[in-house]
Amino acid sequence: MATIPLPAYIGALERGTLEKQARLASAALKQCTLCPRRCKVDRTREKLGFCRTGKLARVASFNAHFGEEAPLVGENGSGTIFFSHCNLLCNFCQNYAISHLGEGDEVTDDELADIMLQLQGAGCHNINLVTPSHVVPQIIAAVGIAARRGLTVPLVFNSGGYDRVDTLKRLDGIVDIYMPDFKFWDEQVARDTCNAPDYPAVARKAILEMHRQVGDLCIDKASGLATRGLLVRHLVLPGGLAGTSAVMGFLAEHVSRDTYVNVMAQYRPCGTARQMKPLDAPLSPSEYETAVREAMSAGITRLDRPRRVFQLW
């Protein structure tokens, strides 16, 4: 019987690199350039940049989530922690109240560690950090605390894909599973939806770095659970705005043909998306079917339960 490897952060804790990276990342808050927005504000003095987050992380909710990808959910769910605010702020965000309005409560690093341990104690198979890009220092510090107190489940970095490579390198040897979005291929679409025309270039570099660190997604045969690797999400947008064919071509040609991808059909007009065509209408079944065909034509065949979404209509 194969032995499931210990999470990467256990080794980082033993080597002392977890504590070192926590110090370095925390120091970076004094002139914050953690994400591509590079606001350069002193978050240790509660100066707020684009992400509207100061020294402490803000948590909107945490729970055992059963709507995530199959290799994360298992029998007991994925232990999701939803962080408030965001460094991207898409106009169609389905968590608008959390990302744009900042619903949630500030937590200390110690309290964040306790949340991780509570989720593990509830039987969750992993700690799933949702929208974590702007709170990397707080996460590293909390993981160190939690690991010393007995945290032993994989760590999932569930981001929008708008991540600086330099920041991701601080997570090398700490994160087990990277789960980024690759939202758009076209710079103008990224400009119009989240005022981030550099998003496509940033996401490409970020995903390459994530794959360098953890490789293709590894799934334990006995449990069906992911233990390490890269899982990419791609939300199909109406009118082909997401550029699915080009995104999948990049993943297949430059990352790996074995990249595990969730081609998502959940789009519906949220936030301020109704003010922008064609985002003012839900995705059609035919648009989603076309996207799946494009993924497979590009050579991407490890798709997360693609048939299930047809039941949405």
UniProtKB/TrEMBL annotation:
This is Radical SAM protein. Residues 81-208 form the Radical SAM core domain. [4Fe-4S] cluster binds at residues 86, 90, 93. The keyword Iron-sulfur applies. Its cofactor is [4Fe-4S] cluster. Pfam families: Radical_SAM. It comes from Desulfosarcina ovata subsp. sediminis. The keyword Metal-binding applies. One of its GO terms (molecular function) is metal ion binding. Binds 1 [4Fe-4S] cluster. The cluster is coordinated with 3 cysteines and an exchangeable S-adenosyl-L-methionine. It comes from the Bacteria. Keywords: Iron, Iron-sulfur, Metal-binding, S-adenosyl-L-methionine. Signal peptide: none annotated.
